[in-house]
Design goal:
- Helices cover about 20% and strands about 25% of the residues.
- The chain is built from 11 helices and 27 strands.
- The strands form 6 sheets. Strands 18-17-16-15-14-13-12-19 form an 8-stranded parallel beta sheet.
- α4 runs parallel beside α5, α6 packs parallel to α7 and α8 packs parallel to α9.
- The radius of gyration is 23 Å and the shape is globular.
- The mean pLDDT is about 95.
């Protein structure tokens, strides 16, 4: 029996270590170890354990609210007394919370399924950046620079491939060298996932710890199924579904005790057997019920497994040709049964040539997608950043995706990255959970409404906004400049179907709500 008294808040991960008494031939692929945690109020959580090299196994656990003593017992499919039948207690104290996820709990889906909320019901909107290659290219020092920049700009999530997925990619095992990368599985070039490298994931722990310290949620994709890092035969569609599922369980074990989002399929049709196997495995082992979904390639039908109970969201990808395609989001939002929707990969800023999809193009893209039904959130990407290009002239990078004159560090400063986070700040603290697209509550064709509680309209060139069906729209309003987040006007409509004045000539967002207190636009 082991007791650990920890000065820890609810929702803050703690780690237990189990030590096998004997060597096992295949600890990663052949052993199944988990721990059941029980609280006196009847709450029970099961957490898978993960192999961390040698005879070491670890279990990560977060208390979803209750303080006090949790008892735990381990189970294993091997008669090893160091792994099976070990028991103890963890005492969770009432330490002051650090960050929004300790204050409000992890993200989950709202009751109606269209929106993110925290565990305590607080509304949430994902504002994601795309840094797919960060896990195998970046150093902790680089990620600190990156995370400070993205958090300051209002991002709260980062899309990441959990490992370098291209079977035919070659380069030194050196994150600081041209074409270098960290290796997660020694056998991935053979499209198998058996020879796991614990040292890679120990490095990844440190990188994700930096992101989470800045309240940036990792959106983890197991093994990419489409283009990958360089388009060199991504393994996500060729590894066996069984090995893909086991790796998904490993990710749940290693990272599921903190805030996370799972992309069990990415850049494919969604019908790959690996996606189904991964979705079912995550559902089986993730007792925290982190949001789980699929991210599609640009020409997919975007509705695979729509009726699966493990599926929470569907993300389209509108490609990299520079088109605004909010109708893709709107079409997905009509699929039944309802799932949350986002454009998970709009065109990257400055990809291929300077000025491409640059500046306010990215802001208009975010607001247009939101109002078309992307109520789970919005996502941004930049050329040279997503592949973590070390410097502008790094050898071996695809010119199509590289931003001229930029490596990852220069790409951090692209103008367009300043706009999506403003959207998140405008909505923070407002009652937008349950909002749906509306063309019927104002003279502006882009809008979201929660009847009786909330209205948002986005006018790309500003101008007066006349509210119609005003009995369903609160009268207090704010007029916001979405390029800066500045509140330009505050007021109350005198009539139900009244006009909110604006001189026009610049993008504007208008929000109607009875209570702005606690929001950034109060």
């Amino acid at each position: 029996m082991t007791t650990a008294t920890l000065p820890t808040a609810p929702w803050r991960p703690v780690e237990l270590t189990l030590t096998a008494r004997q060597d096992h031939l295949d600890p990663y692929g052949g052993l199944d170890v988990h721990v059941v945690f029980s609280h006196p109020d009847g709450l029970v959580l099961r957490r898978p354990a993960f192999w961390d090299g040698g005879r070491t196994w670890r279990v990560r656990f977060s208390s979803p609210g209750p303080v006090g003593e949790w008892s735990w017992t381990s189970s294993a499919n091997a008669p090893d007394p160091g792994l099976h039948g070990v028991s103890g207690t963890v005492v969770i104290g009432a330490d002051a919370p650090r960050g929004r996820f300790e204050r409000h709990g992890f993200w989950r889906m709202s009751e109606e399924g269209r929106h993110l909320v925290h565990a305590d019901g607080t509304s949430a909107l994902l504002v994601g950046d795309t840094a797919w290659a960060l896990p195998w290219r970046a150093t902790p020092e680089q990620v600190e620079v990156y995370a400070r920049d993205r958090a300051a700009k209002g991002f709260n999530a980062v899309l990441l491939m959990s490992l370098q997925p291209d079977s035919d990619a070659r380069g030194p095992e050196d994150r600081g060298a041209d074409e270098g990368f960290g290796v997660a599985f020694d056998d991935l070039p053979q499209a198998t996932l058996r020879a796991l490298r614990p040292d890679y994931f120990q490095d990844l722990d440190r990188l994700l710890d930096v992101l989470r310290a800045h309240d940036l949620v990792p959106v983890l994709q197991p093994v990419f199924q489409g283009f990958g890092w360089k388009g060199l035969r991504a393994a996500g569609g060729t590894v066996s579904p069984q090995e893909y599922a086991r790796y998904c369980r490993y990710l749940v074990a290693r990272y599921g005790a903190g805030p996370v989002v799972w992309l069990v399929g990415a850049d494919g049709t969604g019908e790959e057997p690996q996606t189904l196997a991964g979705g079912r495995e995550v559902q089986e082992w993730d007792d925290h019920r982190h949001p789980t979904g699929i991210h599609y390639r640009p020409f997919a039908h975007n509705r695979a497994h729509q009726d699966a109970d493990w599926l929470d969201f569907q993300w389209c990808q509108t490609g990299h040709r520079g088109d605004h395609v909010p109708e893709r989001v709107a079409d997905m939002a009509r699929n039944q049964p309802e799932k949350a929707v986002a454009n998970g990969e709009p065109s990257y800023e400055n990809t291929g040539r300077s000025g491409f999809n640059a500046g306010w193009w990215q802001g208009h893209e975010a607001w247009s997608n939101l109002c078309a039904g992307a109520t789970m959130g919005v996502v941004y990407g930049a050329g040279s950043l997503w592949q973590w290009q070390l410097r502008p002239d790094e050898a071996g990078q695809a010119t199509f995706f590289s931003a001229p004159g930029a490596g990852w560090r220069e790409a951090l400063d692209f103008e367009g990255s300043s706009y999506p986070g403003i959207l998140g700040r405008v909505l923070q603290g407002l009652p937008f959970t349950g909002a749906r697209p509306s063309w019927e509550h104002s003279t502006v064709p882009r809008g979201l409404v929660v009847p009786g509680r909330f209205l948002l309209v986005y006018a790309h060139d500003g101008g007066d906004v006349r509210v119609v069906r005003g009995a369903e729209v609160p009268r207090p309003y704010r007029v916001i400049d979405p390029t800066t987040g500045e509140v330009l006007a505050r007021g109350v409509r005198e009539e139900e179907d009244g006009t909110i004045p604006d001189p026009g000539g610049a993008p504007r967002v208008v929000v109607c709500c009875d209570d702005f207190s606690g929001s950034a636009i109060a």
